[in-house]
Design goal:
- The chain has about 60 residues and is of the alpha+beta class.
- It has one domain (about 10-60).
- It has helices at about 15-25, 25-40; strands spanning about 10-15, 45-50, 55-60.
Amino acid sequence: MAMIDNGKPLTQSGVSERIWELAVEDLDAFEREVERYYRLAYPGFTPVKYDFERRIIWLRDDR
């Protein structure tokens, strides 16, 4: 499990292939779409790290 700087564990998650494809085309668009997705689908969670090789998005629980 990944850890954030303050020692709290992060939640592992992922998104659709459509969103991952944006990372290749336009990294800024990818980050905007990831933030939008989690704002709608997982309120209270903030994406903080991306693992492009393993296709993992690490989320911080801000609830």
